[in-house]
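Replying to the earlier thread about multi-chain prediction with a worked example.

Input:
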Amino acid sequence: MWLHTSTRLQFHAEVATPFLLMLRPRSGWQQWVSREQYVLSPSVPAVEFTDAFGNLCQRLVSPVGPFSILASADVECAEWADAAPGAHFVEVQFLPESVLPFLLPSRYCESDFFYDMASELTAGCAPGWDQVNAIIDYVARSIRYTPGSGTTLRSAREVNGSSDAVCRDMTHLAIALTRALSIPARMVVGYLEPLAPMDLHAWFEAFVGGRWYTFDPTQQSLQGGRVAIAYGRDAADVAIFTQFGDPVDLVSMVVDVQRTTAPPA
Amino acid sequence: MWLHTSTRLQFHAEVATPFLLMLRPRSGWQQWVSREQYVLSPSVPAVEFTDAFGNLCQRLVSPVGPFSILASADVECAEWADAAPGAHFVEVQFLPESVLPFLLPSRYCESDFFYDMASELTAGCAPGWDQVNAIIDYVARSIRYTPGSGTTLRSAREVNGSSDAVCRDMTHLAIALTRALSIPARMVVGYLEPLAPMDLHAWFEAFVGGRWYTFDPTQQSLQGGRVAIAYGRDAADVAIFTQFGDPVDLVSMVVDVQRTTAPPA
Amino acid sequence: MWLHTSTRLQFHAEVATPFLLMLRPRSGWQQWVSREQYVLSPSVPAVEFTDAFGNLCQRLVSPVGPFSILASADVECAEWADAAPGAHFVEVQFLPESVLPFLLPSRYCESDFFYDMASELTAGCAPGWDQVNAIIDYVARSIRYTPGSGTTLRSAREVNGSSDAVCRDMTHLAIALTRALSIPARMVVGYLEPLAPMDLHAWFEAFVGGRWYTFDPTQQSLQGGRVAIAYGRDAADVAIFTQFGDPVDLVSMVVDVQRTTAPPA
Amino acid sequence: MWLHTSTRLQFHAEVATPFLLMLRPRSGWQQWVSREQYVLSPSVPAVEFTDAFGNLCQRLVSPVGPFSILASADVECAEWADAAPGAHFVEVQFLPESVLPFLLPSRYCESDFFYDMASELTAGCAPGWDQVNAIIDYVARSIRYTPGSGTTLRSAREVNGSSDAVCRDMTHLAIALTRALSIPARMVVGYLEPLAPMDLHAWFEAFVGGRWYTFDPTQQSLQGGRVAIAYGRDAADVAIFTQFGDPVDLVSMVVDVQRTTAPPA
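Result:
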């Protein structure tokens, strides 16, 4: 399926402010970016680099006054994410090197605190995909997915026991539980076509059966229409924008996803 | 200045054929890609990765029959490349690590053969930018730039002494001479706005005075309007397409560059 | 000065257990490793790789029963770490890419919580080195460095307000405060020659004035004799060993540092 | 088996001269470095870095006058390299990214010239390991391995048709032929225990059946006792030392390999 995705950010800065941005989906084996647009208004110098997770990042200094960023793309992606009941646990010694950082605790996923809980939740499950599936079942059952319920970032420990949470929070908890079982888990920020109300979405991937699989504690159907913008250990790595210095006013943020058709040759 | 650049490749393959492609300009400190389009027709699965030089590369298997690729972009770049007479030679021990591979001989730039010649050509020059400038003077004076004069790749040793050569050949010779002086030099393939007849162009950058500077043995004016597509040690690293297996018929290749305006916000 | 450093770990495992190890100091511009030894007993297959921070890491599966690891090295390092009062703050847009990850909050350094506190602590300081120096003054004054006072890892938020802490805790707090000022800070685990009682030590480096400088909240004299083993965002990245699965018994850990002389040619 | 390996280089420089060195074997899945020594005499500042192929490289500026480097190691490695008749050809689209650079022509391996010859030599072979084996058979039969027969580096095209050649030359030819079949091939420089007369040795690895396999046109028995020092595309990438500026006198080079026993714990 083809999607047209866009994010438009409008800022108003009192002083020139350095930004790090991550708004550019990359073509990978799960998605193909055919058209893309990245407009800075007013136009300012910007430099792009690839971070340690392979994300395309942009650096720039915002002007004083109004400043807007439009990042849009036409992307082909799958209708459904792959499900793989029974996909096996990969022992740590056989994991690819690139996957190892996703075993460690991180800012918002204190996996070191969830060892016992993860074992209990997954008792009786075959090691691997089924364990992760039991984890997202638990998260989905025990916490009500409530878009807009939280503006501050919460870590897995803070989320655990909450009644309401946003996608990012639920993902943090699920990642922490997954890593506690020595299963690599990485956060994804991106677009999800059927999401309502529309916003950027967060989910995660777990490495079982020799590859990364999509898991989403808020969408157990494994609904596709997903366009990944950035991968990382948790929300600290995949902020779509990070600004430094005195806080800048985010005047508006508009996210849109539309079904579209293949681009003409 | 804003440029709209495009390359359209049309192939006809008898059998499904694996390709490596490098057609996607990246935003860097010398250019900003605001819009981009990459269309495969018919649509086939493709995967993108970043190579050791930072180039965005695509892998795919062409279908049997006709197959076309269109890669276009709207890019902001400078009217003129920087000139820096007197920019100093950087001693090897102070070069950044990332620059060191560009000191070594490579497939088409046998710098190990040009030590004496490079010394003679640059006798009396201040070490650094002025040496490289003397080298491109020599290449420009001694070889007539003749677009279309050669279809097979020639190495610096083969080019040296020729009367006619294409941009790629002249660049190979200049790079080999530059590296022979222990100055890092890397090849660039990209677009040059005023080129006639229009085609993809090859030039190089040398690392002097603490940064990379543009040099072009075919365009001594340092004319800007340059959009880099790929960087590498020589033409072996920066082929815009590499196909494996039995040769595939390249039916047509159309390159176009037009001045345009800044994209609307 | 030349140091002979060694760490000897003895484990007893009930089941074969995967380990990640980081015990190999690397030669860099601050230290030169002239001799090195890494002995596994009994000998088991091990694979080495370089992580995203440049650390040499080893992977292996421990045997059942007793298992020991000896890592020793002869290293040349400086008598004193460089002090640079007045070294300037580097604005984010001018930081090297490789330094950017050390601006973000991490598992044990929740820099996002320390913005106001960091500003107050450094009020009146010139931006850069002097700010970081004020931060370690504060940490050293407000928390009593008490080796052995804590066995569990504590994050900066947990450490802040404590009366006693180990080097790792104090470093976490100082890093979080430093990053809150948009100054990159990275944790170092290694050897410190005059440390008593001898143990592995933790300190940090901050990027000011265009390079990394050593800071140590427990050793304000900038005493040298430091041999870095690993760099990372915080203790989660630089554990000298990480084991997966059921806990393995660490029977003993002996760390030793001795002054030695240059090796014979 | 355990080997004690050493290389001792003695230089005499008229002027301070920058060097790049590659003398440090790394622990990998085929070898484990348990002890290591790297002595510069006189002692000069040196910095180590990892190149794009994963080799540990050292940079230093030699003093004026005599200068020696001793690099020794105790390494565990296999008695025999793995043979895998029938190991299958991996189609380009399924090769890991890290392997792709080893498909391209390089300074001394002009694979683009050997397409027809490689096809003829391997006619009737199953694609993969058997093709590479046929190539080394051909190289071993058609060229007499003559240590000391050549001091200058020769490329595959120059070697092809020679009657005598050194290990490096024969390896270049075999690599070029292998890559001409779209099989990745990389050069290895290292120690080979039974070599007589003792010297550093060159061989190569080809990627078939999903992994790298050892091939050696001078040692068809797949004799083990191999300690790899460096990997690269060809001799340009894996020079154990590269010096820049006026030539420095290499007074002597002594290479030694002895069987030894496992180090005491």
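The first strand of chain B starts at residue 2 and ends at 13.

Feel free to reuse this layout for your own posts.
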